[in-house]
Amino acid sequence: MAQSGYAYIYDDFLSDKKYERDLAVLESRLATLDLAGRVGKLALFRSAKDLVESLVSQGVTTIVVVGNDRTLDKVLWFLPYLKVTLGYLPVTEPCGIATALGIPKGEEACDILAARLIEKLDMGLLDERYFLTEVTLENSAASVDIEGRFKLSPMHGGRICIRNLGGIGEADKADAGDGLLEAVITPQTESAGFFKRNSFPETRIKFEHGGLTAHDPMEARVDCHTANSLKFKLGIEKGKLSVITGRRRKPAQAGLPKRSEFANLPGTVRNGKNIGAGGGIGIRTSLRG
Amino acid sequence: MFSSSKKTEGYENPDKAREAGATVIARGVRVEGDFTSQGDVVIEGEVNGRIETGGLLSVGPEAKLKAEVVAGDAIVAGVIEGTLAIKNRLELKASARVQGDTSCQTVVVEAGALLNGKISMGAVKAELPHHKSKATQTEEDLAA
Known about the structure:
A: alpha+beta; disordered C terminus; B: globular
């Protein structure tokens, strides 16, 4: 049976009574769509990795996360190591990743699951751990190393964001299918008054590998968790995660060239040369010079 | 045509720069190292090291470069300390402060711009002295 390889991972907060009705609606819809499968429940001292690995060893090929973005965060870091497709049924907030994937909250998400539109998304690497959306440092004076060739840093501190799929609410601004990360640095400026506004508010560079370094320990928000260190290594692996996405998902920057075409655009760093679209806007330009 | 007006006016807003695929180093951002690009580059922040682009380099009025600069064309309104090798056209705005030797094909200097250094014009290669081929360096060394 096609649907027999489904397993649903319920977050532990869903055991709260207030979600009973939501879950009943979901389960009823899944049964109607013939998408029934095994259920695994996360708990405080239960490893999500062990639970999923055990289900995969029993023949499960589609892992459907039921909960919210925090539930997804518990499995994202190890899923690329397994031969599974990820589905997502967001029940409650925060569900910005669901929005980025074109998955609506609640019952409608079951229809997305049934449509089974599978996309292979790149996964970013922060040190040896996978991330899907972005790594963000707030008010940081850290430096972003771009492929060992040059470093970018906000002079008076600022926001540093390393995007793969893109952030919650800004997900459409990054492309998780181009094999590149995007560093977005939004510096704090001393004067942002009417007469001296910052006409170029941010710096954007696409790159394949690099790092983050700082003199003081950094706290980075990675997907829905935080990581602390003086130094992080950054990388990306192309098409590492198979995800069921919605048709409403706008392929990030619709109209942007494919990865192979990116190689010929001004602004992206590849093999140490900055050749890609630095603005990150989907306008194709011809190569000059 | 947009491309020709860009050559003389640079990018005056981020949308135009990004639409054209230019790489923007915003004000308040510092670049250290060897920054190489094949497209247009807009610098509003600081650069220490070396910058090379085959396209148009726009240096904003608040930008500070302590760098060797190689570019196809350049419009400079900020401060540059270092050697400039511009393949085609160099335009110095009134607020420009350039300290270093410069080579270019054509130069446009607005009243008020400051240029301290040797300037070579005509058919020049957009290369810095230490980036010349070994053969060329050997011949020159022998001649010296």
